[in-house]
Amino acid sequence: MPPVTAPRAALAAALVTPLLLPLCAAGTASAHGAPTDPVSRVVACSPEGGDDAGSAACRAAVSANGAPFTAWDNLRVANVNGRDREVVPDGKLCSGGLPAYKGLDLARADWPATRVIPGAKLTMRYVSTIPHTGTFRMYLTKPGYDPAEPLSWSDLPGEPFAEVTDPTLTDGAYRLEATLPSDRTGRHVLYTVWQNSSTPDTYYTCSDVVFPEEKTKDKAKEKERAKEVMEEEESAAAPSTPGPQPRSQRTPSASASGSSSGPSTPMLAGGAAGVLVLTGGAALAVRLRRR
Whole-prediction pTM value? Predict the structure, then answer.
């Protein structure tokens, strides 16, 4: 099982440090941010990612990138205006098509992930350095998604499963509440699009999540077992095959009519009666002679 993350309290605290403040002043946009729970790839693989930053997937992402993801809160594309599928190319959804974040697009099944429950309530923690108005759209990859393939728009439904507009920034983060789809199992990508309304920018992030695996059943074994049960029931209902029986349960055999198979108990009883008759007759003859 790939590594599973916990909420990033330490990362939230790091947002107010002087180290990150120049990021806000350096860009033309005044809004920066990314999800920390469920943790996004860009946050997990940043210098503030903790143990996740040392994972095999993050090391590969930094290597492919050619540089660490220091500006983890600046993955933004200007002037998209809702044309996400036209502007961001297939296979480059996690990077937003930006070369500086291309390592995030690696097709892997071992990205740091967060465990979630199908049909459960999700509260996403989306850290932002400066509050701004805008709409968050949340998508979840379709059933059957293959993490070993590059993420494409066709892997996502046409409509988001949740949409939140102008949430309140509290303690340096937006908290976006939504109900997860109930028909997902295994590994998926939670794709979040934050379209600012007070700036021309749109932010794109991939958060890897893991749903419990469905308890699979071996249908071949079930079918074989059903067949065995049916045969057992049929065997129990059918007449039993003749075989050796206890003496008390054996039925009279054909020997009663002269067969050589041996006398039965009734015949033995009849023979004994005959012997008694003959014996009685002989005794009677002896008496008559004496007279």
Answer: 0.68
Residue pair 196/31 in contact (Cβ under 8 Å)? The answer is yes
Residue pointed to by tokens 């805008």: 134
Q: Euclidean distance between the first and final Cα of the chain, in Å?
A: 114
> Rounded to the nearest 5°, which phi and psi values hold at 205?
-145, 150
Dmax (CA) of the chain: 153
Q: Which secondary-structure segment (H or E) carries 269? A: helix 265-290
Q: What would the two tokens of residue 39 be?
A: 């943790």
Cα–Cα distance, 264 to 68 (Å, whole number): 99
Q: Which residue has the tokens 């992402």?
A: 61
Distance of alpha carbon 59 from the chain centroid: 27
Q: Distance between CA atoms of 8 and 166, rounded to whole angstroms? A: 23
CA distance 174 to 116: 19
If residue 229 lies in a helix (H) or strand (E), which one and from where to where?
A: helix 219-237
**CA distances for 75 relative to 9, 42, 282, angstroms:** 21, 8, 127
Amino acid at 151: L
Residue 139: other Cβ atoms inside 10 A:
21
How long, in residues, is the chain?
A: 291
What Rg, from alpha-carbon coordinates, does the chain have? 42
Three-state SS at 284: helix
Question: Strand ranges (DSSP E) for 240-288?
Answer: none
Q: Where are the beta strands (DSSP E) in the chain?
A: 33-37, 76-78, 114-115, 121-128, 134-140, 162-165, 169-170, 173-179, 186-196, 201-211
Cis peptide before 38 (omega within 30 of 0): yes
pLDDT along the chain (291 residues), means of 10: 47 41 37 91 97 98 96 95 98 98 98 98 93 93 97 98 96 96 97 95 97 65 65 66 45 41 43 43 46 46
Measured in whole angstroms, how far is the alpha carbon of residue 256 from the centre of its chain? 72
